[in-house]
Design goal:
alpha+beta; PII_UdlTrfase/GS_AdlTrfase; globular; Four Helix Bundle (Hemerythrin (Met), subunit A); hydrolase; single chain; 32 helices; 4-stranded mixed sheet; 17 strands
């Protein structure tokens, strides 16, 4: 998990000691004299990232501090007995939070509690203690309480009790700190049923607010996301309640990595802010990786994903233990689930007398049984299997393939079982190639998951289509392996085909099935890319797809995989618009494979036909859908797109098509910021623009003066003229960073080149636009002259700069 990363554990230990010494000096000085008399002391000096600039001068040595400590209350109070070696009795300074745990980061705030026994003058002592901390520039969260008050607060405030459970004595009377800790821990253990339920609910809400699982977030919150530092603290709190064991060595290793990443993030972000950040944003990831001694941001995010999943997996196991301990005994009988596998105590374990050393298929059988029963695979069982189960023979026995298919076919219930196998190191023994994609980040806003988890999620989605295809087994295996090529350089579809041939052969699939599996992996992007980037009314489009897939069986597998893959990728990659286009393409290809010639779509969709019957220009705005029906003429698309941009609307998707002399453009839009514009005003402006009575360019120029520049560097745009994609038009594919007015700029460039857009497919994937246009010249023909083709490419690129 850590690999060759630098460790900052020694830095945390040293910083803890420095802060302890500094705070001890402040405490003793505050006990001796009122703050007003200490203004000339060096404690008030503001210091970045450390408590004081010159720790040797500002923090008294132990001997000096003890000599300076005066056993009297702050001016105006009564005499108090001194505590040997600690200064004044009846008062103590206690650290909670990161300093209490001994893990402060460079930009961490201080969380301090001043404990007292009810004596007079405590407010003046507190002021004398807190003001130098504030003046130093270090963030401070503080409270002043008696032991009784601290215990009462902990009984009702979850944040307070979690801090006090791990509180640490800094200075003063250690008996006060001891009394608080003992009382708080006793209450925590006595009321564990209620408090742990509260802790679990709070942990779930916190993780949801932070965006979900740290392992899969593009910009993870290191503290609050699921699998982050707060979850380690939650497990430590459960252990303090004597309900579950303390986190084991793998969790401790993951915890150290998270602390190290946070340390480096604080160092990096302190260059622009005095406080450390906890969200690892994209622009900081390379710098943090360098500080940790890693190659690049991808290596960093891969280590983080592994650490986050380790912590998240351990937390789930902890909650299961809490449920068993606090919610009554589970029936202890043994219920058979599969050969050598039983349910026992709500978990799946091996049957008595089973020797895992003699059964190489037992791992997959136990996993399949657990997933099909919707039960967790016992951790002790996976540890036993990892230590004793022999490797699968090559080729696999049929029993092993059947178990893998059964595991994947269990749908959502397969995910925790798969994760258990992964954490135990069993997956890479079953499929060695899995190591290449394990925890591999995708680092873009399109994908919700790492590569390996995306593959599992795709298999989960594919499980719902097993009744719709002739070979459900191949569908599930293809779903699990369709992106396996991302573990190697090159086109992942082409590389994946090679890898999956080897895996399929090792699995013992017949040669014909291996070929089908390889074809599905090679072509898994064919349907969604064609549906969104090609004109489905062009006969060449459908014929090419039919030729590529070859058989109805492969088409059905690809259709199911496209839906499962899209849903597993995320909403930026899959929506109802794309789903309808893919379904339309599949229907057309299916007809061609059945022997029918390619058929054009109906002349106009029903809604567009209804609008067109009114004659002239028709516009309809419904939420995020904008439909324009007008007489087909040059510049229609870009004029409409310009109006949308002028109204702060980003085009997320669009289709443009012609039927006779009528053009239909359908946009899916979202406001760039704020609320969407008034539909009536938008419709009116669209009609004015299409009638040539609205100066779009002036509107957009005025808007551009206030546009915010992009903060993140982007790759240069790319314009490609695709050969042989259509017999009747030239296909131009434009890839660029999405920005307001992008479609307007591209369309205007076509207009300046005297080109007419016959059809278009516009798609936005996260922050990237992939737009495809079918263009013809003034005579309605494709552009074949090479010089003119180069001119088109240059014209569009110029418009995008």
């Amino acid at each position: 998990m850590r690999g060759g990363t630098r460790s900052f554990a020694a830095d945390r230990k040293e910083r803890t000691a420095e802060l302890d010494r500094w705070l001890t000096g402040l405490f003793r000085a505050a006990c001796a004299v009122p703050y007003a008399a200490t203004e000339a002391m060096p404690y008030a000096e503001a210091v970045p990232n450390v408590a004081v600039r010159n720790m040797a001068e500002a923090v008294p040595t132990a001997a000096t501090a003890e000599a300076e400590a005066v056993p009297y209350a702050v001016a105006g109070g009564g005499r108090r007995a001194a505590v040997p070696g600690h200064g004044r009795g009846g008062v103590a300074l206690m650290a909670v939070g990161s300093l209490g745990r001994g893990e402060p980061a460079p930009g961490s705030d201080l969380d301090l509690v001043l404990l007292h026994d009810g004596q007079d003058g405590i407010a003046r002592l507190a002021d004398a203690l807190w003001y130098p901390v504030w003046d130093s520039g270090v963030g401070l969260d503080h409270s002043v309480r008696t032991v009784h008050e601290a215990v009462n607060v902990a009984q009702e405030d979850l944040k307070a009790v979690l801090g006090l459970i791990q509180a640490r004595h800094i200075a003063g009377d250690p008996n006060l700190t001891k009394a608080v800790r003992e009382a708080v821990l006793a209450d925590w253990r006595a009321d564990s049923r209620r408090r742990l339920a509260e802790l679990r609910e709070a942990a779930d809400h916190r993780a949801a607010a932070a965006g979900g699982e740290l392992a899969f977030l593009l910009e993870p919150d290191l503290k609050d996301a699921r699998g982050g530092l707060r979850d380690v603290q939650a497990m430590q709190a459960v252990a303090a309640a004597w309900v579950a064991s303390a986190p084991g060595p793998r969790v401790r290793e993951a915890h150290e990595l998270l602390l190290d990443v946070r340390h480096c993030l604080h160092v990096v972000t302190s260059r622009v802010t005095s406080r450390g950040a906890d969200r690892l944003v994209l622009q900081e990831q390379d710098a943090v990786a360098e500080a940790l001694g890693l190659l690049d941001a991808e290596a960093l995010m891969r280590r983080l994903a592994e650490a986050g999943r380790t912590v998240g997996h351990a937390l789930e196991a902890t909650w299961r233990t809490v449920d068993r301990v606090l919610h009554g005994p589970v029936p202890r009988g043994r219920r058979p689930l599969a050969d050598g596998v039983v349910e026992h105590g709500g978990e799946v374990v091996l049957a008595r007398g089973v020797d895992p050393r003699k059964d190489p298929t037992l791992v997959l059988r136990a996993a399949a049984a657990a997933a099909e029963a919707g039960l967790p695979l016992a951790h002790a069982t996976t540890v036993l299997l990892a230590g004793e189960a022999p490797p699968l023979p090559v080729p696999w026995p049929e029993r092993a393939r059947d178990a893998l298919v059964a595991l994947l076919g269990a749908g959502r219930a397969a995910v925790p079982v798969w994760e258990e196998l992964d954490q135990a190191g069993l997956l890479v023994r079953i499929i060695p190639d899995w190591e290449r994609v394990r925890h591999r980040p995708q680092r873009n806003p399109i994908h919700r998951f790492t590569v390996d988890r995306h593959l599992v999620e795709t298999a989960v989605g594919a499980a719902s289509f097993t009744r719709e295809v002739g070979r459900p087994d191949l569908l599930l295996i293809a779903a699990l392996l369709h992106d396996i090529g991302k573990g190697w350089p090159g086109d992942h579809s082409a590389v994946g085909e090679v890898v999956v041939r080897d895996i399929g052969t090792r699995m013992g699939l017949p040669p014909a099935d291996v070929e089908t599996l390889a074809a599905v992996v090679r072509l898994h992007l064919l349907l969604p890319e064609t549906a969104t980037r090609r004109d489905l009314d062009d006969p060449v489009t459908v014929s090419r797809v039919a030729e590529a897939v070859g058989t109805r069986e492969v088409l059905d597998l690809l259709a199911a995989l496209a839906v499962a893959d899209g849903n597993a990728t995320g909403p930026a990659a899959w929506n109802s618009w794309k789903a309808s286009l893919v379904a339309d393409l599949v229907r057309r290809v299916r007809a061609v494979l059945a022997g029918a010639p390619p058929k054009p779509a109906p002349s106009l969709p029903p809604e567009a036909a209804a609008l067109a019957r009114h004659g002239g220009c028709a516009v309809r705005v419904r939420g995020g859908a904008v439909t324009v029906v007008a007489q087909d003429r040059q510049g229609l698309l870009w004029r409409a797109a310009g109006v949308l941009a002028a109204h702060r609307l980003l085009v997320r998707a669009a289709t443009a098509a012609s039927a006779g002399d009528t053009a239909v453009i359908e946009f899916a839009v979202a406001p760039e910021y704020g609320s969407p514009p008034d539909p009536a005003t938008l419709e009116a402006d669209l009609r004015l623009a299409l009638a040539g009575r609205l100066d779009i360019e002036r509107r957009l120029a005025a808007k551009a003066r206030y546009a915010r520049p992009s903060r993140v560097p982007v790759a240069p745009p790319k314009v490609t003229l695709v050969d042989d994609a259509s017999a009747t038009a030239t296909v131009v594919e434009v890839r660029a960073h999405d920005r307001p007015g992008l479609l307007w700029r591209i369309g205007r460039a076509f207009g300046e080149s005297a080109l007419d857009v016959r059809a278009a497919r516009v798609e936005t994937l996260g922050a990237e636009a992939v737009d495809v246009f079918y263009v013809v010249d003034r005579t309605g023909r494709p552009i074949t002259n090479e010089a003119q083709r180069s001119q088109i490419r240059d014209q569009v690129l110029t418009a995008l700069r």
